[in-house]
Amino acid sequence: MAYRVKINGETRDIDAPQDMPLLWALRQELGMVGTKFGCGIGMCGACTVHLDGVATRSCALPVGSIGDKEVTTIEALGQSPVGAALQQAWLDEDVMQCGYCQAGQLMNASALLAANPSPSQEEIENHMRGNICRCACYKRINQAIARVAEEGTANV
Amino acid sequence: MFEATDLNRRAFLRVSAVAGGGLALTMTLPEMALAAQPAMPGATGGAMLGAFVTINPDNTITIVGKNPEIGQGIKTMLPMLIAEELDADWDQVRIVQGDSDVARYGPQLAGGSFATPMNWLPMRQTGAAARQMLLGAAAAQWGVEVASLTTEPGVVVHAASDRRATYGQLATAAAAMPVPDMAAVPLKPAAQFRIIGRAIGGVDSGRIVQGEAIFGVDTILPGMVYAAYERSPVFGARLVSADVAAAKAQAGVIDAFTVEGSGGAENLVDGVAVIGRNWWLANKARQVLNVQWDNGDWASHSTASYDASATQAWTSGTPQEVFQDKGDVDAAFAGAATVLEADYAYPFLAHVAMEPMNCTALMHADGSIEMWAPTQLPQGGQAAVAGYLGLPQDRVTVHITRMGGGFGRRLTNDYMVQVAAIAKRMPGTPVQLIWSREDDVRSDFYRPAGYHRLKAGLDAQGKLVGLSDHFITFDRPPGPFNPASMPATEFPANFVPNVRYGQTKLPTAVPMGALRAPTSNALAFVFQSFLDEVAHASGKDLPTLMIELVEGGTAEPTTNSGFAGPMPGFNPSRLVAVTRKVMEMSAWATPSGTGKAKGFGFYFSHLGYFAEVVEAGLDARGQVEIHNVWAAGDVGSHIINPHGAMNQAEGAIIDGLGQALQLAVEIEGGAVKQSNFHNYQLPRMPMMPQLHVEFVLSDNAPTGLGEPALPPVIPALTNALFALTGKRVRKLPIDVRQLV
Asked: Which of A98, A133, A139, A148 to mutate to test the interface with B (most CBs of B within 10 A)?
């Protein structure tokens, strides 16, 4: 069954069963490997994408359920000012160790700041608790988000 | 005996000759290189295969990152050492990942925090040799003495005549200069360091934040298919039958076949491979395989049965083997004013690197195999695959990919052998094997569980005069490193007059391996907690006891660890320095506010000295709340990359706290009960305490940071909980119900 899905502003055709998670369609049907597989049950957040701007776990999102909603992935994160500011803050704070979870962290953080440009510490922690960083770079992830919340997108 | 020693020496010299001589041979400069070497795939400009350093005419410098990158920052840090002594402009440095190649690079591994001590000198010597050749070329060109020349980043300068030439301008002429003797090449005085000590961001980070393909599982080859592998959840089980036809009939499935195990869990276990055009489809088809397994007797094994066996071994009294017997411990106990006894235990643990195990392989028509492998031990993987396929090692090409974490899991290359067994069945077609998270959690090489029955004797002055341990561990196949072991010198054995350590090994089929700070991550908890008990019994605190124990002690001699070269022994004065430092940082003598308390832990592992203090409390729901962690570490004279160093120390501390608070792998029916992150719960952002890490610089060669900050945080936490509640945590993970 073919599905027509709008991804990063482009219309893409995906030939897959309706229950194939978007994650596997992105990675192996479309060759977009920025979105990561971590657990397959929505528990780690490595596969986070935006669905109409809302942070969504692509490992638990059947291709057949997307319909007209627009998908944004890490590959297009830099196109939004908040996304680009977060990418820069991630580098400035040298956030990552292995880096594998960071696409998901960035996608979740950008959804937070898009909806709430000045989150409190508690709001950052609560919003980001769904994303596991096995290397435990949480302090720096937190600092990078707080930095963009404070400085806005001026540094991009 | 003489022959063996001589062989060892030759083997060591051979490796250093490759590392040392190899530097010269592979210090390939543009003109020479273009004639002699094929271009490195993926590299630009004049970068050449096997060249550690290539100085290009356009002033860019290509440095090979030779070791596997698992997030420990080695791909950034080792090239920093070369660039420093080369006096390169870091902004002009490009770094490419080297393939697995012992002849070119010497040992390549990510493990044991070995990379820093092993490479501190040779990498700097490589850079210094290249700089020497550039100076030689400039001296010849300008007709001046080498001694009259200096360098600025990327430029040779003759101040007297105000002449300057960039490295790129000199590179071709420098290629004709004699290669200096590595051991004799002058190194910079530390005061002139421009790159060592500078906080430099990860070299791949810019690509990672853009979502570029960079990890092993991101490998895409033309015509590639995907494989899932069904194996028994019961360790040691053999395959009886499977309905491969049913799997083949599923949508998107290309093939399915049984695979016969070979060489145990470390190599290849029995299973069924399902091949699909999309991994999700292949993995889903595992559900219809209807596999029948022969579990033998192993399905009767469980955590409960191991607990019972440990208790039984203690009750029967005598350990199978005594591996430390010093003085007369029985007499010491008989004459002691106070005797303490306690039993400690800790569970199996899984690694759960974020990137699940995977590997891509292509069997070529000529029978050779090419692999794209996220592995911490590429040369070991190369050997294992060659062994399984019956190929000479040079017919196994291993491209090392960046890894989404390792933590020791990827030191065992079973997934490489697994994909080789699959690729063998489909020559000409690239295949990527991916494990589900459930496969990963249930097919690991676990941190061994263990049990310790400890006894201490104190004399009338409160001095520790006798110590014994009956350690219950597990039997495992012989190998170069046994994670289910305990050193005979386990602290404080060398600082107590009467000591007996014995062990009893239980049979198991549970595969075991190294988890970040292997053995130390468990033993630090046991011994630093029990010493805290000893400290309380003698009316002092643990840091005071630690300093008193080692008082008057001298540094233990350097030992030769084999492939990793000479390793300095434990030095008591470094323990004292970090202990005093962390006491000062944490205001140790000042009690915490109401509802909070501090605990201390020290551990020496992987050549690093860490003293840590945890301040903890209990929240309204009775859950442990960690407010602060102070850590003082001594890893030598320099912190090479403060970014990477701080990240490793902070990550290790949180890793240890996660182990203490909430992680356990339990065995039921011979299989692992846990399966994914819902029942193996890693730390998340809200648990973050305030972290305060400082390094104490000492006059010692720098050593690694992947591991040594982890072990002491666990007893620092449990000792804090004792100070807070009066309840002693003797079993991990912490059961908060026992604290009230």
From this structure: A98
**How near does any CA of chain B get to the CA of A98, in Å?**
3
A26: nearest CA in chain B? B278
Identify the bridge partners of residue A70 per DSSP, sorted by sequence position.
A6
The number of angstroms, rounded, from the C-alpha of A15 to the middle of its chain's C-alpha atoms is 23
Which of B203, B204, B209 is the best mutation test for A, with the most CBs of A within 10 A?
B209
Which residues, 6 or more positions from B417, have their beta carbon under 8 angstroms from its beta carbon?
B262, B263, B267, B268, B384, B385, B388
Expressed as residue numbers, the domain containing B392 is 216-296+357-434
Say which CATH class A2-75 falls into.
alpha beta
Mean pLDDT of B106-128: 88
Looking at the structure, do residues B517 and B451 belong to the same domain, yes or no? yes
The reported pLDDT for the residue numbered B48 is: 32
- pLDDT > 70: percent of chain A: 98
| Pairwise CA distance, residues B225 & B289, whole Å | 20
| B327 and B188 together in one domain | no
Q: Name the E strands within B561-649.
A: 566-567, 596-605, 608-618, 624-634
Enumerate the domain spans of chain A. 2-75, 77-151
Q: Alpha carbon B456 to chain centroid distance?
A: 33
Residue of A nearest to B645 (CA): A97
- The pair of structure tokens assigned to B43 is 């590299």
Which of B740, B737, B735, B736 shows the shortest CA–CA distance to B346? B735
The DSSP code for B568 is: P
Quickly name the fold that domain A77-151 has.
DNA polymerase; domain 1 (1.10.150)
Q: Decide if B439 contacts A39 (C-beta within 8 A).
A: no
Query: Quick check: A78 and B654 CB within 8 A?
Result: no
Residue B2 is assigned to a structural domain of this protein: no
What pLDDT, in 10s, does the model give residues B590-639?
A: 999 999 999 999 999 999 999 999 999 999 999 999 999 999 999 999 99
Domain finish residue from B434, B454, B485: B434
B208/A96 touch (CB, cutoff 8 Å), yes or no: yes
pLDDT at B545: 98
My answer on whether B230 and B186 are in the same domain is no
Spatial distance between the Cα atoms of B106 and B4, rounded to a whole number of angstroms? 21
Tell whether B27 is covered by a domain.
yes
In B, residues 355-374, which contact A (CB 8 Å cutoff)? Answer: 355-356
Closest-approach residue (CA) in chain B for A121 = B686
Residue B737: is it exposed, middle or buried by C-beta count within 10 angstroms (0-12/13-18/19+)? exposed
Q: Within 10 A of B316 (CB to CB), how many other CB atoms are there? A: 9
Residue B126, pLDDT score: 85
Is B212 in CB contact (< 8 Å) with chain A?
yes
Q: Which residue has the tokens 């061994």?
A: B448
Give me the residue from A96, A100, A132 closest to B205, CB to CB: A96
pLDDT at B693: 98
Q: How many angstroms away from the CA of A39 is the closest CA of chain B?
A: 5
Instruction: Please judge whether B404 and A100 are an interchain contact, meaning their C-beta atoms are less than 8 angstroms apart.
Output: yes
Residue B54 is predicted with a pLDDT of: 83
B321: Cβ–Cβ under 8 A, 6 or more apart, which residues? Answer: B502, B503, B504
Q: Answer whether residue B397 is part of any domain.
A: yes
Q: What is the pLDDT of residue B634?
A: 98
Q: Do B216 and B405 contact (CB within 8 A), yes or no?
A: no
As for how many domains chain B has, the answer is 3
For residues B559 and B672, membership in a common domain is answered with yes
pTM of the model: 0.94
Q: Domain holding B329: CATH number?
A: 3.30.365.10
Do residues B734 and B716 lie in contact, with contact meaning Cβ atoms separated by under 8 Å? Answer: no
Per-residue pLDDT averaged across B161-171, rounded? Answer: 93
What is the Cα Rg of chain A in Å?
15
Of B122, B170, B131, the C-alpha closest to B153 is B131
- DSSP 8-state code for residue B446: B
